[in-house]
């Protein structure tokens, strides 16, 4: 493989999907028989293939991926093409879902495939929307499944360290990288990478809070209050509903850390890499 970054699991069919950034493909591993095959991309960078078979399409640095298990559609954040593609996993037909390659990188809302993105890196799926970490635009975007309209739900579009306890789209982010959803409580977690913090958005009230990190880059704080600790470029994050833990890849500290929502909002180190 060549810089595998994004992963998505289909637990029903026991298939693991992997985005290989520099091979410009999506691989799938059948966890029942341990076989691997290429599902999306011909292996060369570019943009082509909409309306055709996904394996014949050209991608450009696929990053985050997500599977909508209800509609059986895969979403792919293509960082260099500044778009999100979608693949119907029943027909294997690919199309552009959000962003516009012809118009290039930028920022605009409206119909998703005529809007502009800037280096999308992560995707999450709610029952009503597709959420996109629009890293270069310093915000999180949302595409409504029914209307296909894109809006901004977190971040101002300008890099900064925004206030807490305010509406999320009025609070600045600085290169949001990872997204993870607690669907039970309607909470969205955001790795606010260059601010070295983890933010949480209540999707019911649209209020934003900092739950991990002091905004000071470094390493300390295991077992202490989560907002007093230092992180060093947090990247991918994953919520575990069974244990009520948020797993955080603390990239330049070379560790995976955990935040425990049930333990007085305290946290500890999980393991080193």
Automatic annotation (TrEMBL):
Q: Which domain of life is it from?
A: Eukaryota
Taxonomic classification: Eukaryota, Discoba, Heterolobosea, Tetramitia, Eutetramitia
Name the Gene3D superfamilies on file. TolB, C-terminal domain
Q: Which PANTHER family match?
A: NHL REPEAT-CONTAINING PROTEIN 2
Q: Which InterPro entries match?
A: 6-blade_b-propeller_TolB-like
Mind telling me what this protein is named? NHL repeat containing protein
């Amino acid at each position: 493989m060549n810089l595998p970054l994004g992963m998505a699991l289909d637990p029903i069919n026991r298939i693991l999907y992997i985005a290989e950034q520099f091979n410009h493909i999506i691989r799938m591993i059948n966890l029942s028989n341990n076989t691997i095959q290429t599902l999306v991309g011909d292996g060369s960078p570019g943009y082509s293939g909409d309306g055709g078979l996904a394996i014949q399409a050209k991608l450009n640095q696929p990053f985050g991926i997500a599977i909508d298990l209800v509609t059986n559609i895969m979403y792919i954040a293509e960082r260099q093409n500044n778009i999100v593609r979608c693949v119907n996993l029943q027909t294997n037909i690919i199309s552009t879902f959000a962003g516009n390659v012809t118009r290039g990188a930028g920022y605009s809302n409206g119909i998703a495939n005529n809007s502009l993105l800037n280096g999308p890196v992560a995707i999450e799926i709610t029952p009503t929307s597709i959420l996109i970490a629009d890293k270069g635009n310093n915000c999180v975007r949302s595409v409504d499944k029914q209307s296909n309209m894109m809006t901004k739900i977190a971040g101002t579009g300008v890099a900064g360290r925004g206030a807490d306890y305010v509406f999320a789209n009025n609070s600045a982010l600085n290169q949001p990288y990872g997204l993870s959803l607690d669907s039970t409580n309607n909470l969205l977690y955001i790795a606010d990478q260059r601010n070295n913090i983890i933010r949480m958005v209540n999707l019911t009230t649209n209020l934003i809070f900092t739950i991990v990190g002091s905004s000071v880059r470094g390493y300390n704080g295991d077992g202490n209050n989560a907002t007093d600790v230092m992180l060093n470029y947090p990247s991918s994050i994953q919520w575990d509903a069974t244990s009520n833990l948020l797993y955080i890849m603390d990239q330049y500290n070379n560790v995976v850390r955990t935040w425990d929502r049930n333990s007085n909002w305290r946290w500890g180190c999980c393991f080193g890499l």
